Amino acid sequence: MGNNEFVEIDLELLRIDTILGFDLYLAGPHGYILYRSRNVPFNERVRQNLINHGVKSLYMPGKDMTKFAAYIENNLSNIVTDPKIKTEVKCQILYDTSINIAKELLFDPGSLSAVKRSTKIVENMVDLYLKDEGGIKKIIELMPEDYQLYTHSTNVSILSVALGKSLGILNKNELYELGLGALLHDIGKSKIPRHILNKPGPLSPDEFNEVKQHVRYGCYMVENNPVVPRQAIQAIQAHHERLSGKGYPDGHIAGDIPLFGMITGVADSFDAMTSNRVYQKAMTSFKAMEILLSETQHYDRRIVMEMLNLLGPEKTKVISTVPPPEVKLIV
Ligand SMILES: [Fe+2]
Fold it and tell me: How far is the CA of 278 from the centre of ligand 1 (A)?
């Protein structure tokens, strides 16, 4: 988007009695007209006046996008709990805000403020899931196919909370801890050299061993962070453990792998398989589910079946019983 372009903003997103921090424009027949200056509070009288004149949206210069994102983030819980705002809009806002924070987290993983902000996102995501059944499916539909570490982290968090809820975790705090751990599950990859993470061909044994270290790096990075609960760290610690004992870093077997690790592991593998990577094209959800279902020696079948339910019949119909070809270990 160019700096001279304008972005449409739904009136419902502008919260009453807040300072926006960006200028608002009306679309006129000859272009955009400044309507409200950035430092003037937006109040109910102004909103009602706009509604009375049939105005449903205002405009903001594209150059103020960062300010708009900060405004939305600061007012997130207010927006997510507003029954007048459509689920689709809430999901898009949650997804975009989560992506922004995940980007910042991976760029500066030591930032206490980024971790704190990510806790707010997960809290709001859990709120939406618990109050609005349709929110889960809608937010899953927003996941892009192209892999970036920050989109992957966001997707795994969304899928893990959804799986946790389907598996019967209805306690808000537990779902929050699961979602936060899943959002941070690959934070240790920020310590792995880019040329290894982005290598288009197969990794050498040494490179693979280095990539595996991301689990230990990740745990180390958050273990003393007061805003990350112990249970959330299980998602980081155990997302590459497999029931067969063939996972890493500890090679734990079924029974020794915490539930949060198993859930995050399924969400992680599913999202990695269905994303375009430097070394493989995105698989369809159907194909990825076929693989997960054929690998129940590694993945908990109950969790995989819940993933199947979550995606719905349209994406996963005609699950074949033919074993799929051997696939490389997802890192
Ligand atoms: Fe990982």
Answer: 16
